[in-house]
Amino acid sequence: MLGETTNFPATAIDFGGSVRRFFGSERVQTTRQGSLCFANRPTGEDAKQTTDMKSIIPAIASCAIVCLGCTSPAIRSQSPELDPAEETASSLIGDLARPYGLDYIQVEAVSLATGLNGQGEDPPPTPQRAVVLGEMRRRDIPDPGRVLASLDTALVVVRGYLRPGIQKGDSFDVEVRVPSQSEAKSLRGGWLLEARMSELLPLGGQIHSGRLLALSQGPILVDPSNDDDLAGVHQTRGMVLGGGTALNSRTLGLVLYDEHHSVRSSQQIGRAINHRFHTYIRGDKQGVANPKTDEFIELIVHPRYKDDVARYMQVVRNIAYIETPRALQARLDLLERQLMDPVTSATAAVRLEAIGNEGIDVLRRGLGVTDPEVRFYSAEALAYLDDIDAAEALGRAARDEPAFRARALNALAAMNSIGARDQLSKLLSEESAETRYGAFRALHRMDPHDSLLRHEELGEQISLHVLEIEGPPMVHVTRSQRPEIVLFGKDQQFELPVTLEAGPNILVTGHAGDSLTVSRFYPGEPDQKRTVSRNVADVIRAIADLGGTYPDIVQALQKAKDSGALASRMRVDALPDARREYEREDEATETNDEGGLLHPGGIPNLFRRFSDSAS
Fold first, then answer.
1. pLDDT > 80? residue 15
2. Confidence class of residue 89 from pLDDT cuts 50, 70 and 90?
3. Is 222 helix (H, G, I), strand (E, B) or coil?
């Protein structure tokens, strides 16, 4: 498992804002080969004496070029190899350093859900209740005990995951659930009050809160596929999409193995990475690598890999930091032979991608091979090199092969090419729901303001997109990443008669004719009404205009589908699954030497669900 242990300072901030002093503990586990390791911080306290570069070159040179980097598929024994004399002239960064910062950090908090319309509870006297009371007193909320006793509120546990490379201000999903043994009946229609989220640390046999790492709040979306009439755990668990906000940027980098600690090695690796990758900071061009110490190189995530940090680290570790021109040509010849073999093509493609422009011609030759794996891995690597030739092959892979779909769409989204946009646009009209919505999300990643997406903001939190495209009409709602409704086809209509609840205070009714009435009833306030057409988009806009939240709109759409008032297809989170394996016709699917899937890398963030981070 990928891992990272954050070094916390001696000060811990709990939910109530109190400050408690405790001692941190060192948690370091080093694994030289085959896995990524946990590291508390990149320090040299227990390191061996710094080794001069001249003394380690022979050891480095003895590493065979066919020894693969992180997450490499197994190589057939009959695969072609370089002559040993040629291999000794190339050394890869992965031979000297391991990744740092590729895990997901779990953050938690205790908070209060409000607006539960009598479905909450007065929580029992527990440490969690004491934390919430302390936070309410800190905020000068009058009579906090009376607030907690209201059945319109419930004590909730909040959980989220900070992804690798997340930056200060970035959002993430949070899960909200009532504690075990709670008597609260439902969180539907609820609102999560601000929660102060931190990593929990085991110290002295007890669990303590570490640094404050994130804040979260927002409307709680209970699974729209669950019926209100069905009691159970599903009604007392929900999500706040994009409700978490990171308070700090996470560090990403490389840690040199103990035997390779030296300023010279650190700087040499940094120069090799910066020769391959650069980015722009406030308009200034600069490399992505910053050697901080003799054992740690800090990395900036290249924008093209923002949604696939695991692949970025793979590519970085496959960059050669020692290689003569003759050795490079010999390695290109070897990698071309390995690229044409389906068993080794995934790793060969990543290594050609790491080489950069010199590897493009080899990868282009892979596009002409009949084997679908060779074509896909070649096209995927070319996409991250922003080569236009990749677009058509990736579009075909996304349409025809489910095992390649997620990574093909993610690669298209990473390109800066009109050809890639055209391929994604065509996929919006496909029959497959996950292909259509996956292409939409990839287009949004490429350019959120693309005119084809027809973006509307409803209130402060809801995005509505009405796509004027061909294909069967479909309504899509999400329960991951952002509150978003996508209508595939602009003229979708509700069937009459119809009566729909949109949360506890909004009702949609229609009995005849071409119009519907959207009404809001709230105690102590005058009733409000909107008369709109039967067009689905118009009804959504009216609900939002009357103060309806994203969960309210999703509830209304789900009720309409269940009652037959919505004839269009409706899907929730129709995301392509990057965990699928490609099944070869002639043999069982190969896995890599760490038990992963055939293709390198993990699940692209573009298509990651909350459950993927939790697993």
1. no
2. low
3. strand
